[in-house]
């Protein structure tokens, strides 16, 4: 097809050639300008399904089909974004997307930390950092993350590492996060995302077992007012989730089953950080969630998050009828154990 079009253009003569050729090239090359593409292959993973989500929540949780160890994925994109691919074992792989770019991912299902991503400078740099730190101990890795952020304060990799290691983690370190955010803010004073993160961190507090739950007031997606005073069951749970985060939706369903088992001894409020309240409502209605669900569309900047101290996906806090914190950031097994211990 392309060859026949070129022959036609050439037959029109020299005067019209430059304009026609320019128009042809513009039309043939401009189709993918607003798309980001991923071409991937994994040894030891013949078929299956992967999940992919945008860390900012701007794009819905999506699935990637894997066939004969290969997959292709594309998404419309107007500006750079950070996506995360989730594997069946819940391992995660960050991907830095740019409009019009195509990246290639290759790896081994048994050594996901050694996965290589080529196609853009940022993804190559992230691959190099991941390979360099793959055998480090947790303290060594955190030190390497801090050093990387200090040396590359304007890189999107730094923002990802900051979130994943010091904020959206089971044991957040808000002091370290604030220090690193200040460094990034000085390097990018006009960056709205960094400014928003700095403001968010200023209101976050670390949850501590044995202390009192902070007071909060909010309105759920059905217009009902909710507050700490409403959480007066023997055991109460507040959970953070998002429709685009598979792990949190999975835990949401497990908590749903817990409410049936424990009855009136357990009260739940869930907080969605979806940017679109319709996405939150869709999940709540699909799964017949009976408790109050709070979603104000402000994502990580929601006052509810600042008040409760929830900091990553999926996060939760468990407390008794007097507001005493019994545990926080628990996985499913830990959550069940905590409820069994306190509901007799």
UniProtKB/TrEMBL annotation:
<dbReference type="InterPro" id="IPR025380">
    <property type="entry name" value="DUF4369"/>
</dbReference>
<dbReference type="Pfam" id="PF00578">
    <property type="entry name" value="AhpC-TSA"/>
</dbReference>
<protein>
    <submittedName>
        <fullName>AhpC/TSA family protein</fullName>
    </submittedName>
</protein>
<dbReference type="InterPro" id="IPR000866">
    <property type="entry name" value="AhpC/TSA"/>
</dbReference>
<feature type="domain" description="Thioredoxin">
    <location>
        <begin position="207"/>
        <end position="344"/>
    </location>
</feature>
<dbReference type="Pfam" id="PF14289">
    <property type="entry name" value="DUF4369"/>
</dbReference>
<dbReference type="InterPro" id="IPR036249">
    <property type="entry name" value="Thioredoxin-like_sf"/>
</dbReference>
<dbReference type="InterPro" id="IPR050553">
    <property type="entry name" value="Thioredoxin_ResA/DsbE_sf"/>
</dbReference>
<dbReference type="InterPro" id="IPR013766">
    <property type="entry name" value="Thioredoxin_domain"/>
</dbReference>
């Amino acid at each position: 097809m392309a060859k026949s079009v070129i022959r036609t253009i050439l037959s029109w003569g020299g005067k019209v050639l430059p304009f026609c050729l320019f128009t042809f090239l513009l039309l043939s090359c401009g189709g993918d300008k607003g798309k980001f593409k991923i071409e991937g292959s994994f040894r030891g993973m013949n078929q299956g399904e992967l999940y992919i989500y945008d860390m900012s929540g701007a794009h819905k949780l999506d699935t990637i089909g894997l066939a004969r160890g290969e997959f292709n994925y594309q998404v419309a994109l107007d500006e750079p974004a950070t996506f995360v691919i989730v594997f069946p074992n819940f391992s995660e792989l960050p991907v830095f997307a740019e409009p019009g770019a195509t990246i290639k991912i290759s790896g081994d299902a048994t050594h996901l930390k050694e996965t290589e991503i080529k196609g853009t400078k940022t993804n190559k740099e992230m691959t190099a950092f991941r390979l360099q730190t793959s055998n480090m101990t947790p303290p060594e890795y955190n030190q390497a993350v801090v050093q990387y952020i200090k040396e590359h304060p304007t890189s999107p990799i730094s923002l990802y590492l900051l979130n994943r290691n010091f904020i959206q983690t089971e044991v957040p370190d808000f002091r370290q996060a604030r220090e690193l955010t200040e460094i990034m803010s000085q390097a990018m004073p006009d960056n709205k995302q960094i400014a928003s993160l700095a403001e968010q961190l200023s209101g976050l507090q670390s949850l501590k077992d044995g202390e009192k739950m902070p007071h909060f007031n909010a309105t759920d997606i059905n217009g009902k007012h909710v507050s700490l005073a409403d959480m007066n069951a023997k055991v109460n749970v507040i959970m953070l989730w998002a429709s685009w985060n598979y792990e949190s939706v999975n835990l949401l369903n497990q908590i749903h089953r817990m409410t049936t088992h424990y009855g009136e001894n357990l009260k739940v409020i869930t907080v969605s950080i979806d940017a679109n309240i319709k996405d939150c409502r869709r999940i709540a209605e699909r799964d017949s969630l009976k408790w109050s669900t709070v979603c104000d569309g402000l994502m990580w900047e929601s006052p509810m998050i600042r008040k409760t101290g929830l900091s990553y996906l999926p996060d939760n806090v468990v407390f008794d009828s007097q507001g005493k914190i019994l545990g926080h950031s628990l996985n499913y097994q830990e959550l069940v154990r905590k409820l069994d211990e306190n509901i007799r």
